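## Example pair
The file below holds two records. Each record gives the amino-acid sequence first, followed by its structure token line.
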Amino acid sequence: MAEKVHNQGKGHKPKAAADKSGRKPAGALSTRLHAAHPKQQQQGKLQKAQGKERKAGRQQRFTEKSAASAETVKTGDRIVVTIKRIGINGEGVGYYRRKAVFIEGALPNEVVKAKVVKVEPGYLNAEITEIEKRSPQRQDPPCPVYGICGGCQLQHMTYESQLQAKEEIIRESFQRYAKLQELPLRPILGMDNPWGYRNKAQLQAGYDGEDIVAGLYAAGSHRLIDISGCPIQHPVVNHAIEQVKEALEELRIPVYNERTREGAIRTIVARVGQATGHVQLTLITATDRLPDSRRLVEEIRKRLPKVITIAHNIHKGKSPLVFGNKTVVLWGEERLEESLGDVRFALSPRAFFQLNPEQTVKLYNAVQEAAGLSGSELVVDAYCGTGTIGLWLAPFAHEVRGIELIPEAVLDARDNAKSTGVDNARFYEGRAEQLLPEWVGRGIRPDVVVVDPPRTGCERPLLDAIIKAKPQRLVYVSCNPATLAKDCQVLLGGGYRIEWVQPVDMFPQTAHVECCSLLVRKD
């Protein structure tokens, strides 16, 4: 049987159906009762009432059937949708019978045929089966596993269009969550070359037959997709991963099998210092011992002259975290030297560092502008991580105080301050929502607060603490426009206004966008 295709256009109401003789059904025409015997009149009235009931019943059944056909969409149905915009996760967003439809791979102004794969009360998920009207924004993605590995969402879209879509995502987020129709949004800062920018890869190891592969799991599955020559990874990182795979195969060192729980190597992590070209390698195992580690170190050093660190991290548990708690340097330097502008950093294998240094400089310049420092201010850097933002601002401030929950990151931040020669930045382990009120209670009141939270946004107690501390300027760095807008709504109600929002495209070819927002006190 041919598949039914629902169109998104409004349907017309069918006329009343006629029977085989061409007559309208009973009750469709009004009937005039002539004067008659009272008994006949009573019988006629009864017949008329019964006719009306039959008509009402037919109309109700027709209405219910029409409503069901108009509103009920099932998994597997074929629909036609015009795409209106790009969603926050990079999917095309259209509407079908007053429901939002999310379709991966669809672009604005395209008309697509799609198959419904998920039905929820407020929205549908669908997959493209055919593009009826193609967008001029569409291009062929260069990656052979694009759409499978899940690392990128927008390779099929021209770069200029990606930048426009990300600006629109930010506007829509503030309209929806902060109820702001007019947003002081600056033009997004993009890249001249939006490829090969990622300075670090952490890929799961596995087997394809007898060959060792390293990659990412396909969305919603345990199928490992081999990633060789990823177009958004730095070429040095790609080369390092391939050489490690070949070394493991040559020495017959087994990789970990999640199903059987046998083997050793779980994850291969490679990071390149953009300033030096040096490589830091970390092999994460499910075992306490790395098999044949001495020969493996020799083989990797032979294959990768630029490698300066080969480390072993032990992760035996089932935690979704990539790294375990114990790291041992098998050979080479404890840390990788990196720099942003004039600021130098020393990165341990587990240390967080921005993945796109070129765009990070643009982002931190925006942070510096937003902070508006003259040299007399106290800056509190909440969620400070390894201290990158605080150390960037330190030369322009009287004092910087960074707060971070992860002990290792605090140690890295302190080491980074020493290696950079910064003596007016201090880093504290703890929660910002606890330390900030303590400091204010002791008369240590910040002039500027910088927050750079995870994708989930700031904890509400921290927002409340900031509002009570009343810093003149709040610099909010965000990687999620939705949580940024939600948090800004709280801050707007707490006496702040938004001066400007500066988007920075930290991750071209993906749906992610970074923002630096300046909020100032109204009073």
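Second record, same layout:
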Amino acid sequence: MLHRPVTLTSLLIAIGLITSPFSAQAGVYLEPEPPTPDNLPLSTPVQPEVLSAPTVQPVTPETLEFELPSSREPNPKPLYSDEQPLRLEIKLSRRRVTLYRGNTTVKTYAIAVGRPGWETPTGTFKVQQMFKNPTWVHPLQKGISIPGGDPENPLGRYWIGFWTDGKNWIGFHGTPNPKSVGTAASHGCIRMYNTDIEDLFKKVSLGVEVKVVR
């Protein structure tokens, strides 16, 4: 028996790896081998764009510049300083008494002064007495008096005494007869409207100077 040499082509045909155009039904379709990391096409990878970091400029807080005054500005002067003493000045001819704080006028009040023969003494004195609801004693007739708080009391509700001869007194007081204010009608005292003497009583104190001029 003769043996024919086996060639590579015939061997491949025999196992069906090579098909002839005339034997299509016996052919086997082989899918292409998937690529492996070793046979991937070489290419230069695209580098992602690198964004440069922004330049951060240090922020310096804004500085306000202004010139400080060399010395503190003085405060506005008050109407009058409490450090200056109060004083009263009575002008008999004008029928007025003025309350001063130093040389500044605080308030002026209308008054009645002593009648002829009972003139209010002139000079410089000090407040020596201050009390409410004084008792009135008749200057001529002994034993006649009107208690404090009585509506008919000639002294009213407030008394500010500034002169004495050791027995009799002269001072500021109210009156049940407001029409007499502005005249020479008293026995030497200084009559005032009841509202005015109350106001003055609240403002002055013992020791305040009282100057009486013509």
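Notes on the second record: Residues 86-213 form a domain with the L,D-transpeptidase catalytic domain-like fold (CATH 2.40.440.10). Residues 137 and 145 are 4 Å apart (CA to CA).
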